[in-house]
Amino acid sequence: MTLLIISPDYASHLFPLATLGTAWQRAGERVVVASGPATADIVSAFGFERENLQLGRGSNPGTIRAEAQPKGEDDALRGFFNATRLGMVETLRFQAEARSSDLLWNPVEIARTVQALVERVRPDQVIVDHLAFSARLGLMTAGIHHADVVLGHPSALPVFGEVYGYPPAWSQVFRPGATELSDLRLLCEMVRDSFTAQWNVALAELDPNAAPSVDAFKETGDVLLLNYPEELHSAARTLLLPDHAFLGSSVRSEAPDAEVEAWLSAGEQPVVYVSFGSFLSVRGDVLERVAAALHGLGVRVALATGSTDPGTLGPIPDSWLVRGFLPQVRLLEHAVLAVSHGGNNSVTESMTAGVPLLLLPFSTDQFAGAAALDLAGFGETLDPNTATSTQIRAAAVRLLSMAGDPRARLRMLGASLSGGAGPRRAFEALTAAPIVG
Questions:
Q1: CATH number of 258-417
Q2: Keywords for this entry (predicted)?
Q3: Residue 130: what pLDDT?
Q4: What is the pLDDT of residue 60?
Q5: Per-chain mean pLDDT for the chain
Q6: Fold match between 2-249+420-431 and 258-417?
């Protein structure tokens, strides 16, 4: 049996998708990953076969840098970073306006490339990133049975009454005005209609007999998998989803890191893990405030600086571990608190480890994800552009002292997500489904 995984050339997407493939690997089955060259080493580390497939202009091997992107993509990335400094609505507006070029790149060409890839690999099952719209067009129009995986908060798949790009919820620390929210909603509706029109043009070229879509952002594969804990998702919203399976989390294993292991064994103070992921680590101004807030709290800090120069973060205690990239899963196993932008990998991996989150969300589904953790009592959200070091420190102290019912529920959630639950659930969902036809 062969599993084909189709992923954008981004480490943050490939890590959870490839981890799902380990269930097939453990069963002795063949796993092939189709992605771009920037993530080739990740595929190799998993021990999977690889097919080259470029799904977009950009790439990210683990830490993204604008200067490493192709012409045009570099300016778009700088524009995004600048928008995050202006606030929630401004960032969501920027992302909405860039949506077509980001998510529906060369749709007909990529669709046909994916069809040829399937013909060559001849998989029994196919898993594809939900946001790989061009690839999904190829699978759909060729009648290739497939599962698509929503890697972000489930609001990345809008349900009745929602429009893609407009978060269904956000923390109360964000207080956008009614007019700017109305304007954002209108923009997202316009982008939805334009995106759907482009989807339908490509759809008609690939399959003239296909019925046009009403909302391309709501299209799903034959099997819908949500890489998110069902326990954190609104029960009312769950009822509005199409047929689906919640995976909970897809947490990878990491190779031992001698420096990290030595650091973990060298001290007894509680560990706080800090990372803004592969994109938002560029916000060194916020990382600097976080570092200042954690000074003197009686904790050791493991801080992943990403694209930020550590020299800009102010005085760093000798007891801290500061590197551009750190093994997040391993450090979360030892952490008592994580400070994060609220990306889906950070959320699901922290929940699996039973670690509360201090969240500073910047973009997309991070706002809805942070709101869900606030509601569950497993996190606390601050506005990254306005939170002071004093406010960050106070929130960290509150979360470090979490006890009682929230702590007990968080431990229960972590236990339910551990032990490879996500890959196992994906394997069960796909092997119970028809093979590729």
A1: 3.40.50.2000
A2: Glycosyltransferase, Transferase
A3: 97
A4: 62
A5: 93
A6: yes
* For the chain, domain boundaries: 2-249+420-431, 258-417
Residue 418 Cα distances to 25, 87, 247, 310, 379, angstroms: 18, 35, 11, 33, 19
pLDDT digits (tens, 9 = 90+) for 6-60: 999 999 999 999 999 999 999 999 999 999 999 999 999 999 999 999 998 766 6
Tokens linked to 416: 């339910």
Residue 63 pLDDT greater than 70, yes or no: no
Q: Could you tell me which CATH number the domain at 2-249+420-431 has?
A: 3.40.50.2000
What's the predicted TM-score (pTM) here?
A: 0.93
